């Protein structure tokens, strides 16, 4: 009796050698008139379904039930008249198959021994039984090659490096349970978001990803060119201005979940391409949209983990339940630096406070200095979910002025796990003020600010038809998964962009 050795991390020369052997086996199958990659194979049951139905069989039991299933060979042990193999489904479920000389015949048994390698996809038909050791199995009466693997699998008992997991996600999904779980968690969380929106009578929309001019956020865009229109276009940095057009058109509760693109840095919380949720609710404001956001996140946590107390990848528990704190940006910064900071605080004083803590910034807007100081002094201490409210007006050109405070706008950022998860506004719906804000942004753009927006005349024309008072929010789907799982952004994106 011999066990086929599990694959190790092979050198390129060893991979080439194995590929040559596997290619020769592929050619043998074709020479015999059989298919190596058939158009389809008979499958009556999944591996998971068989385990669920017959998981309580006693040792040496027979069911009399014949199934046909398919999976990837991830282990095999060969004796003279018997082969034991473990098949793995796409969901990660495994089941033993047994090929005996008496049951499958000499030709089929020999062909398996000579042609099947670890990593191959095979179809097996046979009776569901339990082995003498109590292992649920399929006693094969026939088998078929479903797809020949020309490259060897990585070592199934060794951790893949993070670089390999990111660059070859297909291998990560094959060998690591957490990788498959993360994909399912993401799908579950997004389904929960849609369910919560549906319960509040929201409609899901799709808006353009190719835009004539970039807008809806302060960010550096990707630029492409349309041959059909002979014009440069921008990959959208946000869907905001189109969603607001829809609100003008009478769609009063709307959301979109789709991709955004920002030509900026990549780190543990940022990716140039990312999934974003944006939502708008007419006749609401930043308070109402904060309530909705809390409900969205808490419902997603319940859907993914069954509790608002989620367990991260490192085993740490994080509580997303209850009512979340709401703090003011200026108030919390004032407390942190020991003096009152207001929208009227001179730029010279903000520069002094920044220099005292080695903050380097070259920007004409006082709001930028306030935000940088806040991120230095206050952000690191935020651990529990917290809405940070009332931002400087000059850094938020699409937000309504605060109803009772000069120099700030009705905007919040939601911090979870110490990073920004979502942002919400009382939307600016006055077309006259919006035009003034756009003109100021255009002035900054002309001065060389690559993140500043241009005047969007089409959007202003829509706004001039009247947009109801509204609350709006945006939340990164990738970051939501980070909050629910404790994983980095490259783990929550299925195929992240890497150099």
What does this structure look like?
With 499 residues, the chain is of the alpha+beta class. It has helices at 12-31, 47-54, 101-104, 106-115, 162-167, 169-175, 177-199, 240-248, 286-305, 329-337, 347-356, 366-377, 431-446, 457-463, 477-485, 489-492, and strands at 2-3, 62-78, 82-88, 94-100, 121-130, 136-147, 203-204, 210-211, 222-226, 231-235, 253-261, 273-282, 309-311, 317-319, 325-328, 386-392, 408-416, 419-426, 470-476. The protein is 35% helix and 26% strand. The longest helix has 23 residues, at 177-199. The radius of gyration is 29 Å and the shape is elongated. The chain is built from 16 helices and 19 strands.
Mean pLDDT level: 92
> What ranges have pLDDT less than 50 throughout 5 or more consecutive residues?
1-8
Gyration radius from CA atoms, angstroms: 29 Å
Helix content: 25-40%
Binding site for Mg(2+) 1: 413, 420
Subunit structure: Homodimer.
Subcellular location: Cytoplasm
Cofactor: Mg(2+)
